[in-house]
Design a protein that fits this description.
Helix content: 25-40%
Largest sheet: 9 strands, mixed
Number of helices: 10
Structural class: alpha/beta
Length: about 350
């Protein structure tokens, strides 16, 4: 990330008046174009297309990692337990696919992106595609028994008509300085929250300006045991690493949350390595030495394919997290959609 990009991103959460003024013309242009596009769909000039089953968008109005993937995985687990046949469509950011593509066990991050591989590991069918309407149609052709489609991100992909919209917010960072890109972190103005169906707040911290009647669900990420990349059936509790310096490595939207989580788990962080979100890893990205390297599940998907040296691979450990939601979001969705359990 360039120094300018770092400066602008810091400005989003620690505003500088002069930078607000400097970025105002670009922010105004972004607001105009985004507003015209939304108006085009609202007035029927541009048309949304419906799929044959309910579609629930899991999205955000701001850039950066907010926890959409853990939330989607948590929903998939809950819906599966209740016998609901659910599929997922995703943009598949970073993948080389040109047409709608089913994510298979042998798919690679280069082909379908990193997050879809994590989602497909849940057992749900996942189709990636730049055109989410085409991706949804492809999923329904392959799995016509599907009762419900979750779309990972896609809040601003208005060509896909949606039944419900669920927005995820970072409890600590909130809406930042409240400005639109590039003057702030928002893809859409905060007023957009008045038109969504529910909000999920990941963690605690910021005083969020939420509409009073907007259903709110609180999400906490619970850490599991660390999993070895070299031996996927080998697990160790965090306590096994007590007193041992470790290296934290993350290529996600909000790496600071991951680093803080490791510290809260009692890890002694020798070094914190931050790469851009969806970073294409290589073996050279792994630091030298013999200290254990702790990574996110999302990064592990990519590192597994590029770290082939046995000794280096043995240093890598994944810290999985699961989403704990209060109250029950899956039950609320099924009630709103009138989907019966196991039917």
């Amino acid at each position: 990330m360039s120094r300018l990009s770092q400066l602008i991103e810091r400005h989003w959460y620690q505003p500088r008046w002069w930078l607000t003024a400097l970025l105002a013309p670009l922010e105004g242009l972004f607001a105009l174009l985004a507003g015209l596009r939304r108006a085009g769909y609202r007035l029927g000039i541009l048309r949304s297309q419906r799929l044959g089953v309910p579609v629930v968008v899991i999205g955000n109005i701001n850039v950066g990692g907010v926890g959409k993937t853990p939330l989607t995985l948590g929903l998939l687990a809950s819906l599966h337990q209740q016998g609901v046949r659910v599929g997922v469509i995703s943009r598949g950011y970073g993948g080389s696919h040109a047409e709608p593509t089913l994510v298979l066990p042998e798919s690679t991050p280069d082909e379908v992106g990193d997050e879809p591989l994590l989602l497909a590991a849940s057992g749900a069918p996942v189709v990636v595609g730049r055109d989410r309407v085409a991706a949804g149609e492809h999923l329904l052709r392959l799995y016509p028994e599907t009762q419900l489609i979750l779309t990972d991100d896609g809040l601003q992909h208005y060509r896909l008509a949606r039944t419900l919209e669920v927005v995820v917010l970072d409890g600590a960072r909130g809406l930042g300085n409240g400005h639109l890109l590039p003057g702030g972190p928002l893809r859409e103005p905060a007023s957009r929250l008045a038109s969504v169906d529910a909000v999920v707040v990941n963690g605690h911290g910021a005083d969020l300006p939420l509409p009073a009647d907007l259903p709110r669900f609180d999400m906490q990420l619970q850490c599991g045991m660390l999993q070895s990349l070299a031996q996927p059936d080998r697990y160790r509790p965090a306590g096994d690493f007590a007193g041992q310096p470790v290296i934290a490595l993350a290529g996600i939207g909000h790496p600071e949350r991951f680093f803080q989580t490791l510290q809260q788990q009692g890890f002694t962080l020798q070094q914190c390595l931050h790469f851009p979100d969806h970073h294409v890893f290589s073996a050279a990205d792994l630091p030298g030495g013999d200290s254990p390297v702790i990574v996110t599940s999302k990064d592990a998907v990519k590192l597994r394919g590029v770290i082939h040296d046995a000794a280096q691979r043995a240093r890598l450990w994944t810290l999985p997290v699961t989403a704990q939601l209060t109250p029950d979001l899956a039950g609320w969705l099924l009630s709103r959609l009138k989907i019966r359990h196991g039917r």
